[in-house]
Amino acid sequence: MTAEPTSAALIAQARVALAEAPVEALGVEKTSRWRRPRIVRAGGAWHLGVLLIGSDAVFATGEVLRAAAEVRRGYAAESARQRAERRFAAARGGFGEGEVVHVGWTPIDLATVDAGGASGPLALVDGVSSVRWSASGAYMPLGAYLRERITLLTGEG
């Protein structure tokens, strides 16, 4: 019987498979007394559902938005105005019109998962590296999840 691959090994394999796939921007919020809030570039990662896989780290997905130039318009709801302000903050931070930006992502500790714990949506379940793909969903094997998401992203199957 062969041992199940570790989370770290599965992520390393995913990076190889994703080498030619486009990355999406990671952003962080910046505020100061002199400038309006903005979201600035903090790197890039491949977006695979609940995971963001960077070249040297893995993150749990947070908020996903598209940068947009600031325009005056009326909003039917306060929540719509707040979403628009987040898109404007990304544009103020240097992202191009329509560029996808991930904000509020959190680091995942693969060593903790491989040692039997949990980090973000990943956990070791019955000795198998697993991912919870939704807040109310059950865990599924990480290897199968990554294969499915990579196929969706790259179109290669």
Describe, in short, the structure shown.
This is Glutaminase. This protein is of the alpha+beta class.
Number of strands: 11
Estimate percent helicity.
25-40%
Strand content: 25-35%
Strand order of the largest sheet: 5-6-1-2-3-4-7
Query: Whole-number radius of gyration?
Result: 18 Å
Largest sheet: 7 strands, mixed
Low-pLDDT residue spans: none
Mean pLDDT: 91
Order of helices and strands: HEEEEEHEEHEEEEH
Derived from helix and strand composition plus strand pairing, the structural class reads alpha+beta
Give the overall shape: elongated
| Distinct helical segment count | 4
End-to-end distance: 27 Å
Descriptive notes:
- Helix 1 (7-17) packs parallel to helix 4 (142-154).
- The protein is elongated and about 55 Å long.
- It has 157 residues and is α+β, with helices and mostly antiparallel strands.
- The strands form two sheets. It has a seven-stranded mixed β-sheet with strand order 5-6-1-2-3-4-7. A four-stranded antiparallel β-sheet has the order 8-9-10-11.
- Helix content is 28%, strand content 31%.
- The chain starts with 6 loop residues before the first helix and ends with a helix.
- It has a domain at 7-108.
- The longest helix has 15 residues, at 78-92.
How are the secondary structure elements laid out?
Layout: H1 7-17, E1 24-30, E2 38-48, E3 51-53, E4 58-60, E5 63-66, H2 78-92, E6 100-103, E7 106-107, H3 110-114, E8 118-119, E9 122-125, E10 128-132, E11 139-141, H4 142-154
Parallel strand pairs: 1-6
Antiparallel strand pairs: 1-2, 2-3, 3-4, 4-7, 5-6, 8-9, 9-10, 10-11
Helix pairs in contact: 1-4
Protein name: Glutaminase
Organism: Microbacterium pseudoresistens
